[in-house]
Amino acid sequence: MQPKIHVFDGVPFVATPYRAGTFIRQDVFWRQFTVTCQGNIEYPEDDPVYGTWWTPYSLVLGQHGLIEEAMALAAACVTKDEFDLTSEIEALDFRPELVLVRDPLDRLVLAGHVEGQRICWCNPVSSQDDAAGVAKQVDELRDEAAYEAGWDNYCTAEHLRLRARALAGRLVDPFWQEHARMAVQLVASL
Length: 190
Known about the structure:
This protein is an alpha+beta fold and 190 residues long. The protein has 3 domains: 30 residues, no CATH class; 111 residues, no CATH class; 46 residues. 36% of the residues lie in helices and 31% in strands. A hairpin with a 5-residue loop joins strand 6 and strand 7. The mean pLDDT is 93.
């Protein structure tokens, strides 16, 4: 679905599908959602004998004006395993874990965790009670991760932290919850 374009005083505006009766300048509309991917990036050790090392890294995949297009961009990058690492000259590889879609005010619009070569999009919470329950589960997972890290179980702790971040992806900003829910249902039906 392409939104309708209106021209006012020679300047094109888009009738946003996310707020009835609202028009956004066309150049601003088409970059309103920023898609980022959190994961780990691989670098070679200074001495090649020691191999490589991984570190957390956040990568901007692009910007789009529609939630569905932002989802398609993320899915294409993950499916094809194509990530632009040109700014990281020595980087060898990138392992994606979590995809986030945010608006210009840095509010969470949608999130999804990467499983293999596909993205499992998080269903946004549907009520304040649901949000409180999810927030409690996230806190419990983070507490458990801290406990495991205290016992030097770093892999277990990192896995629990990732589960907490993926679960926190359900805590979409209230304005975007219904729009994100419809986008997730639309993509699931295809």
